[in-house]
Amino acid sequence: TLRYFDGRAEGTRPFCLLDYFPQDYLMVIDESHVTLPQVHAMFGGDRARKENLVEYGFRLPAAKDNRPLRFEEFEQLVGTTIYVSATPADYELMKSEGVIVEQLIRPTGLVDPPLEVRITDNQIDDLLEEIDKRVRNDDKILVTTITKRMAEELSKYFDRVGVRNRYIHSDIDTLERVQILEDLRAGMFDVLIGVNLLREGLDLPEVALVAILDADKEGFLRNVRSITQIAGRAARHSNGNVILYADHCTDSMRYAIEQSNRRRRKTDAL
User: Fold this and answer.
1) Is residue 109 included in any domain, yes or no?
2) Which of 186, 211, 228, 259 has the fewest CB atoms lying closer than 10 Å?
3) Are residues 124 and 213 part of one domain?
4) pTM value?
5) Count of CB atoms within 10 A of residue 42's CB?
6) What's the structural domain count of the chain?
7) Paired sense of beta strands 165-167 and 191-194, if any
8) Domain for residue 182, yes or no?
9) CA 76, 81, 84: angle at the middle one, nearest 5?
10) Which part of the chain is the Helicase C-terminal domain (predicted)?
11) What does residue 165 show for φ and ψ, rounded to 5 degrees?
């Protein structure tokens, strides 16, 4: 394997693209709140696979050293870094040591979509009314649920009442997911339903409404970062709106709404 050609000792890291950069290079990490955890996890995923291959004789033991960087090795190779994220994680906030710059003016010139809280009583009937308003204008809707079962049941119910929808889930591969999004943009259907609804980097200018069901079920899918990211999917539309269906306002909801209103006030003032 490469370790023999490189003359490296067992356990030492492989050479990588970062070794070819000059000492004073600038690293820009986009969507850092998800990119860094992925970098963190790469070594463990690779090692778990290689352990089995080596144990059963399909690879030489040296294969373990033809691997991704450990996170601490990655950190040693990184110098000046800009972390770009609408919802930076604790790691980036700690590393930046308080040097934070806010980009409030979007390249599109649009302001943040307003966030509105509505009670869960008759929430599906209320949602159907909101969907009907958007469909009349040929706009699209994203609906995010907290469980896979609820997403499936909601999709079936929408089928019965004549709402053109698709349900996206974790078993769908990347190519099919891309096709579903293209079909949404092309007008093949109007409502896209999902659980962890494609938060980061989903650019759908046709989406005028994002509905977040069970917004008050505090947890990973409804923490302040998740709510902010999901709400951001409506920010590409000039009349974008976000509705959070909940029976009470959690700290995450309150903070997300306060921050959105703060950004809207600043953007409106400019």
Assistant:
1) no
2) 186
3) yes
4) 0.78
5) 16
6) 2
7) parallel
8) yes
9) 130
10) 123-270
11) -145, 165
Same domain for 91 and 61:
yes
Neighbouring CB atoms inside 10 A of 156's CB total 11
Q: Retrieve residue 131's tokens.
A: 């969907």
In the block, residue with structure tokens 């963190």: 40
DSSP string, 207-265: EEEEEETTTTS-SGGGSHHHHHHHHGGGTTSTT-EEEEE-SS--HHHHHHHHHHHHHHH
